[in-house]
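Structure (tokenized):
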């Protein structure tokens, strides 16, 4: 793999600033969900994907396995593939293998996690007609760079799988997709994987599994603050909570303070008081309906090209083309 790294500001400084801003909010305290994915968090998410309660990743993979040929048939060649948040790269294999059309294809995973990029290069490095160029960047920065290096006549396919879009609040999801659209040329494609609405008890189980892996995934955010920013959170003073918010149609993860306490975070220069029962909101996972997805895509400047859904665990892959 060729690796392109960004020359960015000190990441610990940014983490500290975001933690400070989120914990000093006057109403609901919050922490950005992107910080759930350090090395421990990424490994825990891999375990979550294997849990019986969490059908999301398996549905995504099943759809790509069953329909890779059908999806690829709707794309032009030559093609460059950019993936926003490659994760382990496992499910992308089906698409990349289906792209064997007698020519070489560049695959550009874009990830802020170095660990994930390495994992993905190891997982996909053996596919013969594919060359991997990894971008250790924020999504839009990486995508701009991929777009800047495309060759004339190449179609760009952006993969945004695993329902990561669900972590954006509405309407930030439209804003984000619009920014993606604006880095593309007319005729470029976006394959969007989204989790669909399903019965609430099933959703709550998926985000509060019997083994407690999701609880560990959530609590790890506090452990990470302790490790990287010199915090003194006692993890046993907090409990994991998953809630369904009907207004936003999202599952929210929170960390509930079991009693009144004050926490210090040295490298964020911060002392925070939490009341008994008060929560820190750490993630939202929005659930979509197929018709809402179409509206979202249209509002962002795409037109509908095809959709594949899973019946066992309602989930959709939607292929969109930039207008
Ligand atoms: C990786 C963002 C799709 O929101 O379902 C899993 C992360 N959070 N369990 C999701 C997650 C709690 C996951 N995504």
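Design, position by position:
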């Amino acid at each position: 793999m060729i690796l392109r790294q960004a020359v960015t500001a000190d990441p610990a400084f940014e983490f500290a600033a975001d933690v400070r801003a989120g914990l000093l909010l006057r109403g609901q305290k919050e922490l950005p969900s992107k910080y759930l994915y350090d090395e421990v968090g990424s490994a825990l998410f891999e375990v979550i994907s294997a849990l019986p309660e969490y059908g999301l990743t398996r549905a995504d993979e099943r759809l790509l396995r069953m329909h890779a040929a059908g999806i690829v048939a709707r794309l032009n060649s030559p093609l460059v593939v950019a993936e926003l948040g490659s994760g382990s790269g496992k499910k992308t294999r089906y698409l990349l293998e289906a792209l064997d059309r007698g020519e070489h294809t560049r695959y550009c995973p874009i990830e802020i996690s170095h660990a994930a990029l390495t994992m993905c290069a190891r997982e996909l490095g053996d596919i013969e007609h594919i060359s991997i160029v990894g971008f250790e960047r924020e999504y839009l920065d990486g995508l701009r760079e991929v777009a800047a290096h495309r060759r004339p006549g190449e179609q760009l396919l952006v993969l945004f799988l695993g329902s990561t879009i669900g972590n954006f609040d509405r309407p930030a999801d439209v804003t984000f997709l619009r920014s993606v659209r604006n880095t593309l040329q007319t005729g470029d494609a976006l394959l969007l994987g989204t989790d669909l609405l399903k019965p609430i008890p099933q959703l709550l189980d998926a985000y509060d599994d019997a083994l407690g892996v999701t609880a560990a995934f959530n609590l790890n955010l506090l452990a990470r603050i302790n490790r990287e920013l010199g915090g003194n959170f006692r993890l046993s003073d907090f409990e994991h909570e998953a809630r369904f918010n009907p207004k936003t149609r999202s599952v929210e993860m929170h960390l509930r303070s079991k009693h009144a306490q004050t926490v210090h975070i040295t490298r964020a220069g911060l002392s925070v008081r939490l009341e008994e029962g008060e929560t820190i909101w750490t993630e939202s996972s929005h659930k979509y309906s197929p018709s809402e997805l179409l509206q979202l895509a249209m509002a962002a400047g795409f037109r509908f090209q095809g959709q594949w859904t899973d019946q066992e665990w309602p989930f959709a892959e939607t292929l969109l083309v930039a207008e």
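Reviewer-requested clarification: The mean pLDDT is 95. Residues 48, 56, 162-164, 166-167, 207, 214, 217, 283, 285 surround N,N,N-trimethyl-histidine (CB under 6 Å).
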